[in-house]
Design brief:
This protein is α/β, with parallel strands linked by helices and 396 residues long. It is 24% helix and 22% strand. A hairpin with a 4-residue loop joins strand 2 and strand 3. The chain binds flavin-adenine dinucleotide.
Length: 396
């Protein structure tokens, strides 16, 4: 048995003391005094019923602890305590208890931005690690269709998963873990794989309590084939959500520069839906550089064709299109030197890079060259953007 527990907490700094959570909780785990509204760890069963009615998001906070904070301790708080760092010798136990392997995968995928980059300052608070392997969220497939041309070599699928009564709160840019059924050669359960959420926080269908994933079928890939073969009505085990840094800024003035290849477009579909639904009149630039081998292999090409230029500026580039010069995202970025330079120098600009491992190198070289032409050192500019939560990479 793990010595750790995941404790549900309410942020006293944000809570407006409306007591909606207390009224919603079906097992009376939430209570209050004159100061704070608090969750009793000895009663809470993680049903999540209280999460969505909360008008502020203050309800959605979690800490991994050895000993739960008492009600009396929580009544004293003006703000939430930091997550405690656990000693090395506890790490494997912690990993087993909370699927830390998935968090390690995320950290590795984000290493192109230099490790622990903070989230954009205006991003909403992400919930992470709510569902683990031993108690996954059960989703039901609502739809599964191909978003690359039928004749193309790349089979990429848009998979919609309904969450029924389960509260599985996600933000644009987060990932979920999928546990493919079955066991490995050593008899242990198959490892989970991570997939970016390609819908926005309010669902694939607005308020439909569902999410979408964008999955590329890999030859002989275990989980991608499992997911791509799912049909409506099939159940799928979801763990997570994961990731609390690669998040969309919640600021209509933010310039968002999105650079991706292949299924790296998945989080940006979520960003685009969010911008379309929540900030239709946003002032900030919203620009996509999206690379694929051919138009037929570019996920969501048809859907992108229907988006107005007032919402999203699209740069779709192809490296193997017949009768056309090879072009990669970094080539198009270089062509747009003055625009990119202006963006990079603007304190409202956030750069997000997502896709195949190694793509950040070409992009980095292009940005270095652009900056050099303008007497700017990209490496130090990048470092300051990264430290301010404005430069993010997710490659795998
Ligand atoms: C942060 C993050 C986000 C991600 N987001 C997405 C996303 O949005 N969409 C997406 O599609 N993927 C995404 N991935 C990748 C995803 O997690 C999986 O790695 C991917 O789907 C491959 O998993 P698999 O189980 O199908 O392949 P695995 O079974 O793990 O195989 C891995 C590779 O080995 C090859 N292979 C396996 N068995 C054999 C064999 N016997 N002979 C030869 N080759 C073999 C497969 O072709 C495959 O390329 C993400 C990864 C990370 C880390």
């Amino acid at each position: 048995m793990s010595e750790f527990i995941r404790q549900h907490l309410i942020d006293p700094e944000i809570c407006i003391r409306c007591y909606t959570c207390e009224e919603t909780c079906p097992i009376d785990a939430i209570t209050h005094n004159d100061d704070n509204v608090v969750v009793d760890a000895s009663i809470c069963n993680y049903c999540m019923d209280c999460i969505s009615p909360c008008p502020t998001g203050s309800i959605d906070h979690w800490r991994v602890v050895r000993t739960a904070w008492s009600l009396e301790e929580q009544y004293e708080w003006d703000d939430l305590p930091e997550q405690e760092e656990f000693a090395e010798d506890s790490a494997s136990e912690l990993a087993e208890a909370f699927d830390d392997a998935a968090n390690a995968l995320i950290a590795e995928a984000h290493s192109g931005a230099g490790g622990r980059t903070p989230a954009p300052i205006s991003a909403a608070q992400a919930s992470v690690n709510l569902f683990g392997r031993s108690s996954p969220g059960i989703g039901t497939v609502q739809g599964n269709y191909r978003v690359t041309e039928a004749e193309s070599e790349s089979d990429v699928r848009h998979i919609i998963i309904g969450l029924g009564q389960t509260s599985f709160p996600v933000l644009e840019g987060q990932t979920v873990g999928v546990a493919p059924p079955g066991v490995k050669a050593d008899g242990k359960a198959n490892d989970i794989r991570l997939y970016s959420i390609s819908s926005s926080r309010d669902g694939e269908k607005r308020n439909g309590n569902n999410i979408s994933l964008t999955v590329k079928r890999e030859t002989q890939g275990l989980c991608s084939n499992y997911l791509c073969d799912l049909v409506a009505g099939d159940q799928v085990e979801l763990v997570g959500p994961f990731g609390n840094t690669f998040l969309m800024p919640n600021d209509p003035n933010a310039n968002i520069l999105m650079i991706c290849t292949g299924t790296g477009s998945a989080p940006f579909r979520g960003f685009t839906e969010r911008r379309r639904r929540a900030m239709p009149g946003a002032n900030g630039e919203f620009v996509l550089y999206f690379g694929a081998r051919t138009p037929g292999e570019l996920p969501y090409a048809k859907q992108l064709g229907k988006l107005p230029a007032t919402l999203l500026t699209q740069n779709l580039v192809y490296s193997r299109e017949e009768n056309q010069a090879q072009e990669y995202v970094q080539d198009r970025i270089q062509q747009h030197e003055s625009f990119i330079q202006k963006m990079l120098m603007d304190e409202n600009t956030h750069v997000f890079i997502c896709g195949v491992k190694g793509m950040e190198k070409g992009v980095d070289e292009a940005l270095t060259e652009i900056c050099e032409h303008n007497s700017v050192d990209w490496q130090s500019q990048k470092a300051s953007m990264r430290d301010a939560g404005r430069f993010h990479v997710e490659t795998y």
